[in-house]
């Protein structure tokens, strides 16, 4: 779909389009209506539409249930089968970015609330959270990442398989990283980009994901360790919990090996260092 078509459509709905662009899998934009700013997001393909809708659904379900805010959803529909939503516009900076790994003060100032929010997400309870875990899809992803990484990950794969019996299923945001948090000038902290949220997925997935990304993509093991300590201060890991966290981190390390090959940001050296510590039982 052409951007001009989308602009015309939004104009018919009464919105002024201040900015609209296609970024990877979505069209995103800054809209205005009756002197109020809005955020627009639309899937670029019918196949992506369920993920876009998942983001809006997750935001609606967790509103006012976390220590941080999520953008309020105001309007949603489909245009030629492409799902879209209009939400609260959240100006402000991300807490950190992999492109600027030396700029971490905002992230460091908010590690405790990030840890607290990860626990709050994990403890969310809703009717309909009893979706089954898709073991086949999980294994297919591992196979895909292993193949694309072109590295010998057999020890890591065996480590993960040895812990699959400890699998526990809990809600997760799915993309829990510093660049999914936006800090407004007012001091309000928002969690965005929840298209990968799941209601029944690996327990501690968000914790492991954040820990792994800060360590290997932001390239700051010290801050990653401080985050994990902040989480441990509010959550007492049982022995089974430790195995479950190790399972989630092993999954993220397998994916991270693929990322290191393609994103030009993830450090393969830090990947290997973290993997060695995990295999040696030195993380928790």
Explain briefly what this protein structure is:
44% of the residues lie in helices and 19% in strands. The chain is built from ten helices and ten strands.
Folded structure, characterized:
This protein has 284 residues and is an alpha+beta fold. The protein folds into two domains: 3-88, Phosphorylase Kinase, domain 1 (2-Layer Sandwich); 93-279, Aminoglycoside phosphotransferase (APH), C-terminal lobe (Aminoglycoside 3'-phosphotransferase, Chain: A, domain 2), CATH 3.90.1200. It has helices at 3-12, 49-62, 105-109, 111-122, 135-149, 154-161, 205-216, 221-232, 239-262, 268-279; strands at residues 16-23, 26-33, 36-43, 73-79, 82-88, 93-94, 169-172, 181-183, 189-191, 198-202. The strands form three sheets. The protein has a five-stranded antiparallel β-sheet with strand order 1-2-3-5-4, with helices on both faces. A hairpin with a 2-residue loop joins β2 and β3 (36-43). α7 (205-216) crosses α9 (239-262). The chain is globular, with a radius of gyration of 19 Å. The relative contact order is 0.12.
């Amino acid at each position: 779909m052409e951007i001009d078509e989308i602009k015309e459509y939004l104009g018919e709905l009464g919105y002024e389009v201040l900015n609209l662009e296609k970024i990877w899998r979505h069209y995103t934009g800054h809209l205005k209506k009756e002197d109020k700013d809005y955020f627009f997001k639309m899937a670029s393909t019918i196949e992506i539409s369920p993920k876009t809708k998942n983001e809006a659904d997750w935001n609606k379900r967790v509103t006012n249930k976390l220590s941080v805010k999520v953008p309020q959803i105001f309007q949603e529909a489909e245009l030629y089968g492409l799902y879209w939503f209009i939400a609260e516009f959240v100006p402000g900076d991300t807490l950190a970015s992999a492109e600027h790994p030396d700029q971490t003060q905002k992230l460091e100032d908010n590690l405790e609330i990030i840890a607290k929010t990860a626990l709050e997400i994990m403890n969310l309870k809703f009717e309909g959270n009893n979706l089954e875990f898709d073991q086949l899809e999980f294994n297919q992803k591992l196979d895909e990442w292993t193949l694309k990484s072109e590295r010998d990950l057999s020890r890591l794969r065996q480590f993960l398989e040895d812990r699959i019996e400890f699998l526990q299923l809990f809600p997760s945001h799915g993309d829990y990283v510093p660049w999914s948090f936006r800090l407004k000038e007012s001091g309000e902290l928002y969690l965005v980009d929840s298209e990968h949220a799941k209601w029944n997925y690996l327990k501690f997935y968000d914790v492991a994901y954040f820990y792994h990304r800060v360590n290997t993509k932001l390239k700051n093991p010290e801050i990653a360790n401080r985050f994990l300590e902040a989480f441990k201060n509010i959550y007492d890991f049982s022995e089974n919990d430790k195995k479950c966290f190790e399972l989630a981190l092993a999954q993220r390390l397998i994916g991270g090996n693929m990322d290191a090959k393609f994103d030009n940001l993830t450090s393969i050296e830090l990947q290997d260092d973290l993997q060695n510590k995990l295999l040696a039982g030195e993380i928790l």
